[in-house]
Amino acid sequence: MSGLRFRAVVPERGYDAELAVEAGRTLALVGPNGAGKSTTVDLIAGLLRAAEGYLAVGDTVLVDSARGRFTPPHERRLAVLGQEPLLFPHLRVQANVEFGPRSQGRSREEARRRATHLLEEVDAARFSRRFPAQLSGGQAARVALARALASQPRAVLLDEPFAALDVHAAPQMRRVLGAELRRSSVPAVLVTHDLLDVLALADDLAVIENGRIVECAPTAEVLRAPSSAFAAGLAGVNHVRGRTEGETCCGPNRVSRSVASATKRWGPTRRPSPCGPPRPSRSTPSHPRAARETCGRGSSRTSPTVGE
Ligand SMILES: Nc1ncnc2c1ncn2[C@@H]1O[C@H](COP(=O)(O)OP(=O)(O)OP(=O)(O)O)[C@@H](O)[C@H]1O
Question: What residue stretches are annotated with the ABC transporter domain (predicted)?
């Protein structure tokens, strides 16, 4: 498994963004309402088709509009977990979680083992004989997390997956998700409005505004020295300081910038994003610090933990 490279342009939504997430790392995508976070997830998942687009996970190119390639959602092998659990209503919980591994050709026994393990992890084993209609919203969300992780995806996409959970369930689910992501070493994109999600899960943090990535760097760096007003608000500081040396998380752009220069960068000439241009093959980030400390292929997840 290796990193995820993504770029897409959707003119009718004013969307023109690119991201790179190294294998084994989680990138949190934050931004104001209507900025383009769900659009990003939909594009990567294949639920929305871009006018121009490129998507690769590792060596597998899933979308390349220049070559007319568009892999349908069900063939992408991506785990997508949103606010709605979207469980199969006619299957019991256990069968819902077994469905992914079974459809990938795993044996009945292997699928059962994996589903049972994940249902225990998310504290939903006692619901395994129920149908989705017999679950509460929070219980269904736990099952949906188990199902998303069961199929050993190429990459994981999470669109506010804990929004429906209560204050006790959310920390437990973060722990399960964090452990699974660390174990699986796949790239993950997490859309969230919640700083706790960012602190608990995100190695890197990207800010999207008006369909453009305006900041992308290791989480600790963004929170320490935000260069966008939105990240400053998230970090709880009222000033934008910016970084003084190359500290982007995922790509070749080394020069830190103020919001103003970021806006200039993202002007009509469509320059490379802070997260780097999509690369057609596995490649090491060109930024030496990023490669060494944060974004190197196969590097371990390093997000800070929060007391939960
Ligand atoms: N189905 C659609 N058709 C046309 N435009 C859309 C559609 N869905 C979203 N948009 C527009 O695309 C832009 C990005 O929306 P998106 O839902 O991706 O934002 P978001 O960052 O996820 O917002 P939120 O935090 O409110 O969920 C917005 O301007 C929105 O109005």
Answer: 4-235
Question: What separation in Å is there between the alpha carbon of 164 and the centre of ligand 1?
Answer: 20
> Which among 16, 29, 39 is the best mutation to test ligand 1's pocket, defined by most ligand atoms within 8 Å of the CB?
39
Closest ligand 1 atom to 41 CA: 18
Residue nearest to atom 10 of ligand 1 (CA): 13
| Domains annotated on the chain, with CATH | 4-77+153-294 (3.40.50.300)
Model's pTM, two decimal places?
Answer: 0.77
Output 251-256 pairs: Cβ under 8 A, ≥24 positions apart.
251/20, 251/216, 251/275, 251/276, 251/277, 251/285, 251/286, 251/287, 251/290, 252/276, 252/277, 252/285, 252/286, 252/287, 253/287, 254/287, 256/227
Give the model confidence (pLDDT) of 226-254 as tens digits.
Answer: 988 899 888 876 555 555 444 444 443 33
Tell me: the pLDDT tens digits for 198-233? 999 999 999 999 999 999 999 999 999 898 889 988
